[in-house]
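#help-structures

NK: newbie question. if I give both the sequence and a SMILES, will the prediction place the ligand too? trying with zinc ion
OV: yes, paste both and it writes out the complex. here, I ran yours:
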Amino acid sequence: MTSNHVVLDCGLPIDERIRRLVEVWTRDNRGREHLLTGKAFFAVYSWHLRHRTDHDIARAEFVAASYDSIGGSDGWDAMLRERANCGTCGDRYRLENIGLCTGCMRYTCYACGAHASCTGETV
Ligand SMILES: [Zn+2]
Ligand SMILES: [Zn+2]
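OV: that's the protein plus ligand as structure tokens.
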């Protein structure tokens, strides 16, 4: 199971998914193969920005290493210009204008809002 799959699997709360990834990454000499890309990176980075703390240095370093590996600020800007469909209404938005439900890992637009049936937060 790759790191991306761990993030996209909805079986655990997202903070627990990230905690496990960071643990594996740390144990495996911080190998690049454990870093995140695509939708998994979008979800984790967005979540991390909301839950940044001074305590979890390993998590911050894992996110920063993934950020660098997707191309830093240029890569992030390019990602925000990609488009995705809202899982509820189907409308298409740039990633900068759509949220992602960390409970079911589907995109949700701001008109549709958070999923009432999901326990995860929308980032
Ligand atoms: Zn929608
Ligand atoms: Zn959901």
